[in-house]
Design goal:
The structure holds 2 protein chains of 2 kinds. Chain A is mainly alpha-helical. Chain A contains 7 helices and no strands. In chain A, helix 3 runs parallel beside helix 7 and helix 6 runs antiparallel to helix 7. The longest helix of chain A has about 35 residues. The termini of chain A are far apart. Among the domains of chain B are: about 170 residues, Up-down Bundle (Cytochrome C Oxidase, Chain A), CATH 1.20.210; about 160 residues, no CATH class. In chain B, about 60% of the residues lie in helices and about 0% in strands. Chain B is globular, with a radius of gyration of 26 Å. The N terminus of chain B is likely disordered. The chains are: A mainly alpha, B mainly alpha. Chains A and B meet through helix 2, helix 3 and helix 6 of A and helix 1, helix 6, helix 7, helix 8 and helix 9 of B.
């Protein structure tokens, strides 16, 4: 495979020079040595990061206006955060097992992750229900509105993750793919899970600290 | 010191070894493919071939036709507005319909025509073909992207039929007025507009993912990044910009939808509307402006960069000359892309922000003119002593250079705070952005369609009709927009549906308004000629030979023309050079295709650029 080059090295190549022509003819047509699914996930994560960063910027800007009233943090949010942390750890474990080809344990891990993901979503809905029960509506203060917005967008990301988790799990059980391919998919889902954990920690931290 | 010398010696001996190896017979050899060939989806029915197609070529054509269809509506809206402006006495339009047409015209042209046509249309058609891939990386996601776009367009059009009609907030959709009583479509049309934009962003993200991964990972063997045609560089960089810029639009749209539907106060300040105090408080309208323009300015380059890339290739092919300063062109594209995220607030000089903030953005705006100017110089130097063929693509490319230069120069005026303040919200601004972002990219689109039409249909478009179309469009757009610069200088404000008998407005502007409107009607009608040419030539056009323009890039080197499903027959192409080897001394033909093996062109000496 091609040697790893920085973006500056790539952009300063002189494609007309004899040495470069020789090297270029050997090029395999891939810029980075990872699968297209993995690079696709990274692209999506980059776009998502921009999305959440802009939400955070909007939050920080809006916070400065003096009508801002902080929201209480229900203990259930800590519990939900814990669920996310555990599911990330289990996913990490699942990738380990998949690599070692321990089929049963990987399968159990994957099922457990699905259970945790659904519990997280239900947990978030209960938080919503509790908050609305105590009068913290989206309309009553913009801080509440941001909370509902953040949890919704993060939840939608989780739902997207559950969709791909479902596809991966069913392919894993049916063994319809080669070992490298299915491990690649499990890896990708795991990375996405870690990403969503980090996003949630940042958002939760932001709401706690303000 | 001695190390360096050793290096030099080594390099020299390498060069000698290379030179001797040229005469050996295996100069064509490339290492075996390490990567497996792409598995393709093969359609089985009419529906999956032509409607829910997963072939990027078809998706590209679908995107292009949908975008052009929507763009025609935008064109008709501009006719209606111009008739109102020229003949206010007729009572042709209600003020509210005028605002609605302004808004829909702007949004349709910028997002649903230009963005969709350049990235969705040309991106899908050209990326796999020019990179030497069989299809996009994720064909199914690609299909979803197109259908999300269709739904977005339908939702947008649906807003014409809801009570209150489409939104009349201007294409920038500034709150609070966009969702406050008194603005047309403040409770129905605006919601559909926001939903449509959210769908567009979602659909685009799926498409953009495909463009990025395909360009980065699925190129043919030998196709390094610095051997890619500039068209691909332009589309690729624009896609990266879009992936970073569209989230800002998404955030703005989501929060405004909530403000409007739920009554939250993200952007809505405390205010009194029609004598009633609204429940909103504390929201920041400026925040929306920042979000909107953080998307809005890169959006200008999302449209411009593919145009830059395409025009570079058209100029090179039709003047039979290497593009001047290829690397500089790539750097300029990447540099403009990066800088475009640091200039957004030059759209907001009159929003009451800190003057130092304006100073910063004026500076960055002037800096971004540098790579842009480099590109213009390089286009002109490409033409210099070239064997210029005045074919239709060349005519449109030349028209683009002049128009882009014109619009770019007025941009330098507006980029300076002190000049912008009196000119802001006048027809000078309208003239500027139509020149630079409307006419210039559209000329490239026409050139590109005339250029790549044989690749799609296997037939040529009619030359005479094309020339009539070019001259009316080119001269006509100057007849429309030059007078607008003058109108802006004498202070005619934009977005006014009638000027009445204002003592502050010179009477000459009324006459000019009539003149502009007549030009608009003629230029618009000339587009019908183009449409006739576009559709009729598919059946009646002269059969095209293979590679009619004698171009080097891979899309013309497919075994069949038009290319079939999978593009490349049994074997993927191997690339031996960049696509700009025209008029090479010693070569038999005046062009050397990218995939022609070196053994077939022994004796040709490629000059350094």
């Amino acid at each position: 495979m091609n040697k790893k080059k920085s973006i500056f090295q790539l952009l300063t190549e002189k494609p007309w020079e004899t040495d470069q022509i020789e090297a270029d003819n050997d090029h395999q047509g891939r810029t980075v040595n990872i699968t297209k699914q993995k690079l696709g996930l990274r692209t999506i994560m980059a776009a998502s990061t921009v999305l959440f960063s802009l939400f955070i910027v909007a939050y920080s800007d809006r916070m400065l206006v003096n009508d801002w009233r902080n929201m209480p943090e229900p203990w259930l949010l800590w519990f939900n955060t814990g669920i996310l942390v555990i599911s990330s750890i289990v996913f990490h474990q699942a990738t380990k097992y998949a690599e070692k080809e321990i089929f049963d344990k990987t399968k159990n891990c994957l099922f457990f992750i699905g259970f945790l993901a659904y519990s997280f979503l239900i947990g978030q809905l209960i938080v919503w229900y509790q908050l609305m029960g105590t009068g913290y509506y989206a309309t009553s203060n913009v801080a509440n509105a941001f909370f509902y917005l953040f949890t919704t967008i993060h939840g939608l990301h989780i739902i997207g993750g559950i969709y791909f988790w479902g596809k991966t799990t069913s392919k894993f059980i049916k063994r319809s793919l080669k070992k490298e391919d299915i491990n690649n998919l499990i890896d990708i889902c795991a990375v996405y899970w870690h990403f969503l954990l980090v996003v949630w920690l940042v958002l939760f931290g932001l709401m706690l600290s303000s | 010191m001695s190390d360096e010398q050793d290096h030099k010696l080594e390099a020299k001996s390498d060069y000698v070894a290379d030179a001797s190896s040229v005469s050996t017979p295996d100069i064509d050899s490339v290492p075996d493919a390490e990567l497996p060939d792409q598995e393709l989806y093969h359609s089985h029915s009419w529906w999956t071939t032509y409607v829910f197609s997963q072939d990027a070529k078809y998706i590209g054509i679908q995107y292009a036709l949908t975008a052009i269809g929507t763009g025609l509506l935008g064109l008709v809206l501009s006719w209606l507005m111009r008739i109102q402006l020229a003949f206010p006495g007729l009572g042709w339009l209600e003020p509210s319909s005028y605002y609605q047409f302004v808004t829909m015209h702007g949004m349709i042209m910028v997002v649903y025509l230009l963005t969709a046509l350049f990235l969705g249309g040309f991106g899908n058609l050209l990326i796999p073909l020019m990179c030497g891939a069989r299809d996009m990386a994720f064909p199914y996601v690609n299909m979803l992207s197109y259908w999300a776009f269709v739904v977005a367009v339908l939702v947008l059009l649906a807003s014409f039929f809801v009570p209150g009609g489409p939104t009349g907030a201007g294409w920038t959709l500034y709150p609070p007025q966009a969702i406050t009583a008194g603005t047309p479509g403040y409770n129905g049309g605006i919601i559909l507009m926001l939903i449509s934009l959210i769908l567009f962003v979602a659909g685009f993200t799926m498409g953009g993912l495909n463009y990025i991964i395909t360009v980065l990972q699925l190129r043919a063997r030998g196709m390094t990044l610095m051997r890619m045609p500039l068209t691909i560089w332009g589309i690729f960089t624009a896609t990266v910009l879009a992936m970073f810029a569209f989230p800002a639009l998404l955030v703005g749209c989501l929060m405004m939808t909530l403000d409007s539907l739920l009554g939250t106060s993200f952007f809505m300040p405390a205010m009194v509307s029609l004598g009633e105090t609204l429940t909103h408080e504390g929201g920041s309208p400026i925040l929306f402006q920042h979000l909107f323009w953080f998307f809005g300015h890169p959006e200008v380059y999302i449209v411009a960069l593919p145009a830059f890339g395409i025009v570079s290739d058209l100029l090179s092919v039709h003047s039979r000359k290497t593009i001047f300063g290829y690397r500089m062109m790539v750097w300029a594209i990447v540099g403009i892309g990066a800088l475009s995220f640091f200039v957004w607030a030059h759209h907001m000089y009159v929003s009451g922000m800190n003057p130092w903030f304006g100073f910063f953005f004026a500076t960055t705006t002037l800096i971004i003119a540098v790579p842009t100017a480099i590109k213009v110089y390089n286009w002109i130097l490409t033409l210099w002593r070239g064997n210029i063929q005045l074919s239709l693509p060349m005519l449109f490319s030349l028209g683009f250079i002049v128009t882009f230069l014109n619009g770019g120069l007025t941009g330098l005026f507006l980029g300076n705070v002190t000049v912008d303040v009196p000119l802001s919200d006048t027809y000078f601004v309208v003239a500027h952005f139509h020149m630079v972002m409307g006419i210039a990219p559209i000329l490239v689109i026409f050139g590109a369609i005339y250029h790549w039409y044989p690749l799609i249909t296997g037939r040529m478009m009619d030359e005479t009709l094309g020339k009539i179309h070019f001259w009316i469009t080119f001269l006509g757009s100057y007849a429309i927009y030059f007078p607008m610069h003058y109108q802006g200088f004498v202070g005619v404000p934009r977005r006014y549906f009638e000027i009445y008998d204002s003592p502050y407005i010179d009477t000459s502007t009324l006459l000019l308004n009539k003149f502009i409107t007549i030009a608009v009607l003629i230029v618009g009608a000339a587009q019908l000629l183009f449409l006739y040419n576009l559709f009729a030539s598919a059946r009646l056009g002269k059969k095209s030979e293979k590679n009619p323009w004698k171009a080097n890039s891979l899309e013309w080197q497919t075994p069949q023309m038009p290319p079939e499903h999978g593009n490349w027959g049994k074997e993927l192409p191997k690339v031996y050079r960049w696509p700009y080897d025209f008029s090479v001394p010693g070569a038999k033909e005046d062009y050397i295709p990218q995939n022609q093996p070196p053994s077939e062109i022994i004796g040709a000496k490629v000059e350094k650029t």
